[in-house]
Design goal:
Helix content is 61%, strand content 0%. With 157 residues, it is an all-alpha fold. The chain has one domain.
């Protein structure tokens, strides 16, 4: 019974993701990731199809490996949310147009704060243990308690 519920939920999520291709406020990739989760518990064949899919597979793997969303995916989601808000402002009266606006703000904020996937080269270096320390962004200044430090030049005349 549980397997059938996961299959139904996966098919529903996949259907919503398909609708999300057309409707800007309904995101596609999160529903596909949810469908992959449900199919992993109900239909290995459908899960494999999604994970190996040319378009959705990389998004699913990024999410599974590091709860990450690519910059391109974040931008696409924010553009879709912006289009939804504009459509709502033009065609829907107050207070109903606030619903898509709130959904866009909440969803957009959540998506933008997700991590971005590591590059394959970063994963290989990290796995080999040869992580180099990046050079500092700011110059290092001497500690003010150090008596040998000269400090800034004075401007006395």
């Amino acid at each position: 019974m549980k397997r059938h519920l996961y299959l139904l939920a996966g098919l529903t999520a996949l259907g919503l993701g398909a609708i999300g291709i057309i409707l800007p406020l309904l995101p596609t990739v999160p529903f596909v990731i949810l469908a992959a989760f449900c199919f992993a518990r109900s239909s290995p064949r459908l899960e494999a199809w999604l994970v190996e899919h040319e378009s959705f597979g990389p998004h699913i793997m990024n999410w599974r490996e590091g709860r990450a969303i690519t910059k391109k995916g974040k931008r696409a989601a924010l553009v879709a949310f912006s289009v939804s808000v504009i459509i709502a402002l033009v065609f829907v009266e107050l207070p109903w147009n606030l619903i898509p606006m709130a959904a866009a703000l909440i969803g957009g904020t959540w998506i933008w704060t997700r991590a971005e996937p590591k590059l394959p080269a970063e994963n290989a270096i990290e796995a080999s243990g040869e992580i180099e320390k990046a050079p500092p962004i700011w110059p290092e200044f001497p500690d003010s308690t150090d008596s040998s430090a000269k400090g800034p030049p004075s401007h006395k005349e």
